[in-house]
Amino acid sequence: MSGLAWALLPGAADREDRVAPLSGLGRAVPAGWHRSVREFNAWMDTRLLTVSGIDVTVGSLLAALLVLAVFLAASFIVRRVLRRYALSHDDINQSAIYTVERLTHYVLLIVGVLLALNATGIPITRFAVLAGAIGVGLGFGLQAIFNNFVSGLILLFDRSLKIGDFVELASGVHGHVRDIYIRATRITTNDAIDILVPNSEFVSGRVVNWTWRREVSRRLKVPFAVAYGTDKERVKQAALEAAAEVPFTLRLDGPRAPQVWLTGFGDSALQFSLVVWLTAEATRRPGAVTAAYYWALHSALERHGIALPLLRRDLHIKSWSQPAQDEGQAPPPRGDAGMHAARDNDAVRDVERDIVENPSPPPRPVDPRPRRRT
């Protein structure tokens, strides 16, 4: 502050603690300010701890926290700007903006941490030994965490998995991809349940991406069964009517029209499958879409008077009672019919041939003389 500005302050002429202007500067400051500055500097130079011969003071720690806060704030501002830009432009690839947003956050966070450590007086070169220790830790306890981190970077750069995709994992988890974090990916199911799946499961496991190709329909097979004796043409007509009633059917004619397949003969039913091509929007909710087709199938089968199969078991009673055979009584001799049936049994002939070709060794004779105990 210049001497003229100091003189213009209210009550400056009456202050007794005013000192002479500093030489060459033409300034006059209160003596109490010098004392406060010295006390503040002494407090800032207070040593908190010593790391590898480097003293970490209060001032260096505050400077490191300030640098880290600046970079975190910068990361927040950049991500917010990118997010608003993506929302205001519909023609922008949302997954690409998300990738840039996450990578910017990681880069600013790493640079902020390194500069914060440098502000504390710890040189970055001192972390060579720490990097070796981290490498050893990655080979043991941190291997899974490092694997998930690298898998997350692969997902961001490979773009095989994008924000908004509807995926189904080998474990049965399916839902929309909402976020790709450092360790895990957040998936929201159709029941509004958030599930955190490790990133490595998407890289090393089998993943079904229902929305890999945008605006592309998918084929759905809906199995059902009817009772034996039902006319197949009536079943086909009823199933096609059910497909026409569901609004998720792509088209009713052409190469992708609904089809009815006879897929098998069950124990008590004829097994069919209604094969339909879905619209692009319906592929994101396979469970609800399948339930809609089952509802329409049941209504159409009832209209045509087609009975659904019921599990039935037929019990044939050979005889009500059979006299017990005495223990001493020999079994009745097998007649010619029994011998002929045995000869026609391939399994019996195979066992008999094996007995003839590989006879059992004769038993060893038993020595009648008693053995001496030694």
UniProtKB/TrEMBL annotation:
Span of domain Mechanosensitive ion channel transmembrane helices 2/3: 104-143
A GO molecular-function annotation: mechanosensitive monoatomic ion channel activity
One GO cellular component term: plasma membrane
Domain Mechanosensitive ion channel MscS: 145-211
Family matches, as InterPro entries: LSM_dom_sf, MS_channel_1st, MS_channel_C, MscS-like_channel, MscS_beta-dom_sf, MscS_channel_2nd, MscS_channel_C_sf, MscS_channel_TM-2
Topology of the protein relative to the lipid bilayer: Multi-pass membrane protein
Keyword line: Cell membrane, Membrane, Transmembrane, Transmembrane helix
Pfam family, one: MS_channel_1st
Gene3D superfamilies per the UniProt record, alphabetical: 1.10.287.1260, 2.30.30.60, 3.30.70.100
Keyword Transmembrane tagged: yes
Annotated Basic and acidic residues bias: 341-356
Transmembrane segments: 61-82, 103-124, 130-157
Region (Disordered): 321-374
Record's subcellular location: Cell membrane
Domain Mechanosensitive ion channel MscS C-terminal: residue ranges: 221-307
Protein family per UniProt: Belongs to the MscS (TC 1.A.23) family.
Name of the protein: Potassium efflux system KefA protein
Organism classification: Bacteria, Pseudomonadati, Pseudomonadota, Gammaproteobacteria, Lysobacterales
